[in-house]
From TrEMBL:
Biological source species: Paenibacillus algicola
Domain Sulfatase N-terminal: 3-360
A Pfam family annotated for this UniProt entry: Sulfatase
Protein name, UniProt field: Sulfatase
Family: Belongs to the sulfatase family.
GO molecular function, one term: arylsulfatase activity
Family matches, as Gene3D superfamilies: Alkaline Phosphatase, subunit A
Amino acid sequence: MRPNILFIMTDEQRFDTLGTVNSAVRTPHLDQLAREGISFTRAYTTNPSCVPARAAIITGRYPSKCGAPTYITHLPPHEVTFTSLLQQQGYYTAVLGKQHFGDSLIDRGYDHADIIDLHGPGDWDIEGESETSYMKFLKAAGFTRTSQLSERVNRYSQRWIAEARYHIDDYIGELGKSWLRHQRPKGQPWYCCLSFPGPHMPFDGAGLPQETGYRLEDIDLPLTEESDLDSKPPHFRQQLVTGQGNPGGAMANGMTKQELRETRLSYYANMSLIDQKIGEVITELKAAGEYDNTLILFTSDHGEYMGDFGMMGKGQYLSEVLMRVPFLIKPPVSGFTGRTEEAFVSNLDIAATCLSAAGAQVPGNMDSVDLSPFWKSGAKRPVKDIVYLEAGDLRAVRNESWKLVYYRGRPYGELYHLKEDPWERHNLWENASASGVKEQLKSLLMDELLALGERSHMPWNDKAPQI
């Protein structure tokens, strides 16, 4: 029997905002899911921005290949979503929450869609927002302005002052429960994407009931400092000061420890709300008798600076705190014994993993890797020696110990010894003693770029000599 597939996603969630990774964060339901599945501790996204990262996930192709490499690009209509391929395999497909297709005319591949590309009520006058089911829900409850829902705490965070059930992430969770209870197809395998807009800014988790699980003095502070930017390329500090050129992008200006703790508390409390709703959705799945036969995948599109280097948000950077993401898989296997896995994986691999579970062939032009061998007995696991990353004019490669970020047409770059410097505080690009490693990583990056060319695996000619 082919399994059902539940793909749960958050937005802008750091890799270290799970209780299994960071004791300062309370996510008991996701922690339980990790104990019943595979927790990938070195998972990466392809891109640090929502649109390209999500485009890569839905197509299984890197942003530079699928035609959506930046925040202001959208998938061209000739690209193919893995959800449309699931439809061809007889799956009923549904999406609830954020997607970020923008103006793309691509066949999205959903039989049922309740797409809500918001992070909260925002500006009530923005054209189109009032048409989402969430905005209709708020208006039906009598809300007419944002100030009825939240109030500012500091420059970066807000306090939720309305009932928790009106928060967008609570609403998305309720959509998931309702779909499983009333709309889930019977006698047909299904795929459902439940995509939470949080904990992305406006960081409005303060004031939610989950805030009571935290004490301000216990909130962890960054292990990096603004002075660490001195050795990094100039656009780090330029964006730090101006905050321009990237909606919701990286910016901060002299954050105090009070502001950092308040903002992180709000971020964590929002994550705890999402965790609670995920727990309720899984309870609903178990009540329906579908848990054992459902493949559950959980990840985020990218991370968040959240005060590291004095910065907030994200932008055209390939920092670890932006590129590493949480990634859990609960196999469709009864009584599976969970474990952690240190192999390099990517949220790009979701497409091939879902297609494989559905019994479908993975298209040859996909960069996605099937992760099912990690739970199938006797199967050879796809072990990667490197991870490849993109962001506009930036390309990066990391191996077990080192990471190189190449800047197109610039004389500078980034080089970090991650074994000794996991938080990337010391850029060794200009360090003479690391020049040999830099050249080796440049060669690895060139090899990866050549391999990513369309049909690059094809031989030169029949009987041509091997180079």
